[in-house]
Design goal:
Alpha/beta knot; binds S-adenosyl-L-homocysteine; single chain; 2 domains; five-stranded mixed sheet; Ribosomal Protein L25, Chain P; alpha/beta
Length: about 240
């Protein structure tokens, strides 16, 4: 059954006009009155609703909201990803796959060696685009909670704004995905705890030594994904698969 993100209050028995995005999507699928769809608002723990199309206008789509299900398909563990944005459409791919794999949030960062340089309006536009990619992935994979794609930040700004463990922030584990020699394998750390975890991975050019040192000073622990050099968009995904179910 087609699933649509419908970021409005949903209640069984209500007749609502779908928001523009979902309405367009229903039109594109050439659905007809009587057709059944699933709607989710994206609010935490709001589950999903069955709905039946009542009216297809030129642009308006009206539906009758049906039975509610409190089902959630989130990972038991919260996994956050801070990622040096790869260029081209590789970031789209990363956002889509990370959402499917259950990521809790994505923080795109600019780093010393970032190929892609984003700021101002262009950065805002990109953020909106990536958030839409995450929504589409949720529609497809069955998630009812949409991972937040945060506004693009410089890595140093993120590190400055987020307290490390020694600064009284005990809320989560932080792992730096790193190619440094003699780094502990991430796979050995799986299952040691179920606390929220944040991964930091570099862009295609990698993080500079100074950036890695700054992350380590903020309570990140360097971890390895093995002896092969993974692409910027692969590393975060490989880490996610180890920590989400
Ligand atoms: N040319 C770069 C490669 C960067 S790969 C360099 O030599 O540094 C992009 C990012 O993916 C890296 O910054 C790192 O965070 C992560 N990564 C890639 N392969 C990895 C591995 N085997 N273990 C841990 N992290 C890895």
């Amino acid at each position: 059954m087609p699933r649509f993100h419908c970021p409005t209050p949903l209640q069984t028995g209500d007749v609502i006009s779908l928001p523009a995005g979902a309405a367009r999507h229903v039109q594109v699928l050439r659905m007809q009155p009587g057709g059944a769809i699933t709607l989710f608002s994206g609010e935490p723990n709001h589950g999903e609703f069955e709905a039946t199309i009542e009216h297809m206008g030129r642009s308006e789509v009206r539906v009758l909201v049906g039975a509610h299900s409190s089902v959630e398909r989130e990972s038991a563990r919260q996994v956050h990803l801070i990622v040096g944005v790869p260029a081209n459409d590789r970031m789209d791919w990363l956002v889509e796959k990370a959402t499917e794999l259950g990521v809790a949030s994505i923080q795109p960062v600019m780093t010393e060696r970032s190929v892609l340089r984003l700021s101002g309006e262009r950065a805002d536009k990109k953020r909106g685009h990536w958030q839409a990619v995450a929504v589409a992935a949720c529609e497809q994979c069955g998630r009812n909670q949409v991972p937040v794609v945060h506004a693009v930040l410089g890595l140093n700004a993120w590190l400055a704004a987020n307290k490390g463990k020694h600064e009284g922030n005990s809320e989560q584990l932080r792992y730096l995905l790193s190619l440094r020699p003699e780094t502990k394998a991430l796979s050995t750390l799986v299952g040691q705890s179920s606390a929220a975890v944040t991964f930091l991975s570099g862009p295609e050019g990698g993080l500079s030594t100074a950036e890695e040192d700054a992350a380590l000073a903020k309570g990140f622990q360097a971890v390895s994904l093995g002896s092969r050099v993974l692409r910027a968009e692969t590393a975060g995904l490989a880490a996610l698969t180890l920590f989400t179910v």
